[in-house]
Write a structure and sequence with these properties.
141 residues; mainly alpha; Cytochrome Bc1 Complex, Chain D, domain 2; 0% strand
């Protein structure tokens, strides 16, 4: 009986992982949207917080979970529950393409937003936005 339970558990886990991969694949299948340019001055801005500080990353994750996860997903794969309603991809924050962006570029995009992503200039402080950038760095594959 114990072996049957173990097999059932493994099968359930396998089915769950397959179902999750379809959701991620579906999220990544949407078009990217138009290019989002960032001025050099903004891209060169340096973070006002330490990106490798545990408290900074935790604070960034807390903000992410409230403000970003619904579209970008828990792991930044662009598969949040609201992502289905958006015509373009919400991006894969674990990808090389996003991880290669400068901290300043990520901060700018979070600050300014563009449709369908809102601006967080008024919703989050500069420090909170920099903390989110620090958290985004932890999503690297």
């Amino acid at each position: 009986m114990k072996k049957v339970n173990q097999i059932a558990l493994l099968l359930s886990a396998g089915v769950f992982l397959v179902a999750m991969s379809f959701g991620t694949a579906k999220a990544q299948a949407k078009p990217k949207g138009k290019e989002w340019k960032v001025a050099d001055a903004d891209a060169k801005k340096k973070s006002a917080v330490k990106n490798d500080d545990e408290a900074t990353i935790k604070a960034g994750k807390d903000v992410w979970n409230v403000q970003c996860k619904s579209c970008h997903g828990a792991k930044g794969l662009g598969d949040g529950p609201k992502a289905e309603k958006i015509d373009i991809s919400c991006g894969d924050f674990s990808s090389k393409e996003i991880q290669d962006l400068s901290d300043g570029a990520l901060f700018y995009k979070t600050t300014e937003g563009r449709k369908p992503m809102p601006s967080f200039k008024e919703k989050l402080s500069d420090t909170e936005r920099w903390q989110v950038v620090a958290y985004i760095r932890t999503l690297k594959k």
